[in-house]
Design goal:
Blueprint (H helix, E strand, L loop, with lengths): L1 E5 L3 H12 L3 E5 L3 H8 L10 H10 L3 E4 L2 H7 L2 E4 L14 H13 L4 E5 L7 H12 L6 E5 L9 H6 L4 E4 L3 H18 L3 E4 L1 H32 L3 H9 L20 H15 L4 H25 L6 E5 L14 H11 L3 E5 L4 H7 L9 H5 L4 E4 L4 H4 L3 H7 L4 E4 L6 H6 L3 E3 L14
Parallel strand pairs: 1-2, 1-4, 2-3, 4-5, 5-6, 7-8, 9-10, 9-11, 11-12, 12-13
Helix pairs in contact: 1-3, 4-5, 5-6, 9-11, 9-12, 11-12
Bound molecules: nicotinamide-adenine-dinucleotide (NAD).
Length: about 450
Amino acid sequence: MKLTIVGTGYVGLVTGATFAEIGHQVLCVDNDAAKIEKLRRLEMPIYEDGLDPLVRRNVAAGRLAFSTSIAEGTAHAEVIFIAVGTPPGYRGEPNMSYVERVGREVAEHMTSYRLLVEKSTVIVNTNEQLRRTLNKYLKQDVPFDIASNPEFLREGTAIQDAFHPDRIVVGVESERSAALLREIYAPIVERSGCPYLQMNTASAELTKHAANSFLAMKISFINAVSRICELTGADIDQVAHGLGLDRRIGPHFLQAGVGYGGSCFPKDVDAFVRMGEELGYPLDLLKEVQKINAAQREHLMRKLQQELWVLEEKTVAILGLAFKAGTDDVRESPALYFVPRLLERKARLRLWDPVAREKFDLAHPGLSYAETPLECVRGADAALVLTDWPAVRTANLAEWRRAMRCPIVIDGRNVFSPAQMAEHGFTYHSVGRRPVAPPRPPL
Ligand code: NAD
């Protein structure tokens, strides 16, 4: 089947390549000409494990192509997926201007039936706004459908998630759109055996926001428990293990840490809260989730500040700039919180990340980067772990101990064990676990 994906970012590119791999004829459209040029040269604009060979294979097979033209995209396929960004906008509302623009532009180029599928994360009933937009801007009297097909992939495991999703959710209002989406997804449902859920459009839109808000809530919940652990001497690893074995709770998203970030949870929780306010049902529960998340970063910052006392002239090694391991996405990453605050206090920073350096540099130009974690911590007065990259998890701590000026580690991801850090003589603060302080040398 011929498919168009508008928006060739983390979601659009992975979705396009996945659809091509299962045999569809896919055109990925983006209005960022530099990105499309890069893709035409087979250079990946994002880091995602397995994406490069997937794109190459499908371009070579003639099933995947790239364009900057919405007109071409609209002409190419009966089904058009909208995968553009919905970043935070005014007072927590998502900025829907990108989605609206795609609606307008597609409408202006439509000459026969089209199904527009919202893959971007949107607030409930966006489909109605999109319908109104199309009706306003259509140049010819042609039929169309709007459907919702929220995306649940996780950066870092996006390809695996796309081929083996936990579920596929589609929201439709007509037999025709239901049949089209079922046909598109049939190979994935067949291969993976995943549930295929068809519902009305508003329910599909809401499912996505509710899922992300719930996951954010789980993270904030365990982070709140971690604070109680710190105040009582309980250990968050043991508590989370005990909690997670309850099948009603499950072990996922129970890792205490520096808080959630990324391009989805913060803005989606914001949007959900804002939607609740507009509907007259304030979601105070989620406001608390946001407060706990913000407090977690501040709490870690305080730990660092308490250890170093004065930050001016201190070298702080920052390990991890991506919002999580496995991606180069730095949107709302913890590093974006810490770096400006440390610079304000005149700390000297040395940064390391295996893949996110280029994107971080765009947000914060002119900082000093290290090639390896060891080089990053060399001569540092403290190291701050913000992403649980395997290269940090498996670091040679004896080497770190020798390389650092002061062996202080503030671990926002609990990548090390307190016992291991004590053994190597570090001063070590993590989340929800007892701090480690080396014995004082005799006077
Ligand atoms: P992104 O910023 O990586 O990609 C969006 C792309 O859309 C960009 O390349 C941009 O140039 C392009 N674009 C914007 N306006 C356009 C237009 N008018 N015409 C053509 N292209 C246009 O964003 P993303 O991370 O892929 O997220 C896209 C949507 O998917 C968002 O709503 C997000 O919330 C949702 N989502 C993201 C993830 C994730 O992990 N990133 C997961 C699930 C859902």
